Amino acid sequence: MRKRATAKQVAEAAGVSKWTVIRAFTPGASITEESKRKVLEIAAALNYTPNLLARSLATNSTRQVAVFVDDFANPQKLPFLETLTEQLQAAGLVAMLININNHFDHVNALLHADQRQVDAIILFGTAFRDETLTDLQLGHGMPPMFVLARDSQIDGVPAVVCDAELALRDIVRHLYERGYRRPGFMSGAAALSTALRRRQHYLEFWAQHSIQNISLLSADRYSADAGAASVRAYLASTPAKERVDVLMCENDILALGAMDEIRGNFGLKIPEDIAIVGFDNYELGGSYGYGLTTYEQPREEMVRAVVSMIKGAVEPETVTLPGRLVVRSST
Amino acid sequence: MRKRATAKQVAEAAGVSKWTVIRAFTPGASITEESKRKVLEIAAALNYTPNLLARSLATNSTRQVAVFVDDFANPQKLPFLETLTEQLQAAGLVAMLININNHFDHVNALLHADQRQVDAIILFGTAFRDETLTDLQLGHGMPPMFVLARDSQIDGVPAVVCDAELALRDIVRHLYERGYRRPGFMSGAAALSTALRRRQHYLEFWAQHSIQNISLLSADRYSADAGAASVRAYLASTPAKERVDVLMCENDILALGAMDEIRGNFGLKIPEDIAIVGFDNYELGGSYGYGLTTYEQPREEMVRAVVSMIKGAVEPETVTLPGRLVVRSST
DNA sequence: TTGTAAGCGTTATCAA
DNA sequence: TTGATAACGCTTACAA
């Protein structure tokens, strides 16, 4: 059990009251330079620093934000976590990273975060069951919640997402202008609303060009291997004449796997035989070997939006932000 | 300001003292079934749950662990974070994710974690300046610290690492048995002890086979592009006859970039012209397109070791754990 | 089994 | 500017 100096001890050593000590550590408090200097000096000698835990109890604000994550397979999470922690910390907040993968009970995680008195909860791209939330929301008093990088269909829980409609419009326009006319779409495993929406808009915008006959592939996980397996099955069962001329994959990881398979195993050329589009702008996709055309989510802006709402600088409401089409050699 | 029911309120509503309420929520406390049932019932009605913040203050234990991360570019961090949060949570602990990249002051981060009264601090693969630590350690009273996935050269701060000597011995033995005799090594940017150690052991074990002439390449970042650029410069300036027959890269990301460049830009075959070895067993390296031979760190065991020490189940001391050579088609 | 008193280290508020 | 009182919601130790 390690010991720390408390304000009281510093006060005694400095010959002042403990409130004066507190003031010395409170920016802008009314205290004479003289007292402040003396207190800080003694505090340094005694190795005293304010106890944020006690402060949280007294102020009813922990300045901690729970961040729920359930899918650690998507490498895209990492830059998001970096940006998120960076902006939270810059705002004087700190992230509690809570894993809610299969091993954990979602309701319990929520309750636990609440008991820790976090100032807010961010559902970061999680497949949170909506019923779970509605149940608990009713039980009032929960910390404010936000959904990041995924749609929210829960009343009163705002989401910050990349504008899927705009994204798919840009993508399809690009593909159409490049001359592709036989599109395909590879879905990932999850029936997440965000995922479904990408496909839906893809179909919708092709339909506006009177192209309705779209090949639908599906991968059973979000991994390169699953992407490869999916495209392998497709190519193996589809005569060259009938194949798509462009395949959009729901995210970059699937796309990378598909590219490997198309070039390596089938000896086809990208984009001459089949063009490929991904989603997320995962770093490796931009490397020489791939040159994957993709769409980048406005990470900084999305995070900024959530953090602003948490800080209370902005009214909480669902925000949809435009991303950026990144054209490379795969289309 | 949201309101929560407190133990006192529940006590009044239930007609008992608040300590009885506490007992109802304390497993194994001495309380009659009758009182307990009643209290829990009223508590549920009032939406009461114990305030973990107040508990932490009273018990002097937050059950929070600060996890410092500075390099979010390495996708290997993600599975580690998943395992770490999983095991911490299973032990009743929760991770505070603290970003200490360039934007932040390391000393301050440490001080801040301390002020938050965390039970422990994990330096997860960070390039923490050792002087920083020694300074602060002296100021006693800091939470116990641990270094994960990197060597620690700081007195009293134990590390949990993958056994580099064993790893490189296995790798070099494998390469030697496969018949390779002209090895090369690509280093990443950082002068991290862990990184230097890999190269050192690589040289050492080749030397045991009387092979001393080892080509040293270096990449200026840990990214696929940097790996590609490094190998490009090498190949462009080295006649085919004089080239290495096997190139070990300090991690998988560098290796993947190198592979792309070797095959795509130079039209060489892997492993016939140049064999490649990586380190980390990053998922994409295992996909069909790469088939990268690599070495897998014993993630679960490493995390288990740290968590055991934090729980106090095991004496804190540096632990070196054996990993696993993963042989694929690139060698 | 249950209630009481004291304490954890702060902050808010008011009085001096 | 400074000091004092009460409060934050819980735990520990002890008494009833």
UniProtKB/TrEMBL annotation, chains A, B:
SUPFAM superfamilies: lambda repressor-like DNA-binding domains, Periplasmic binding protein-like I. Gene3D superfamilies: 3.40.50.2300, lambda repressor-like DNA-binding domains. GO terms for molecular function: DNA-binding transcription factor activity; transcription cis-regulatory region binding. Keywords: DNA-binding, Transcription, Transcription regulation. The keyword Transcription regulation applies. Residues 5-59 form the HTH lacI-type domain. It comes from the Bacteria. Pfam families: LacI, Peripla_BP_3. The keyword Ribonucleoprotein does not apply. PROSITE patterns: HTH_LACI_2 (PS50932). This is LacI family DNA-binding transcriptional regulator.
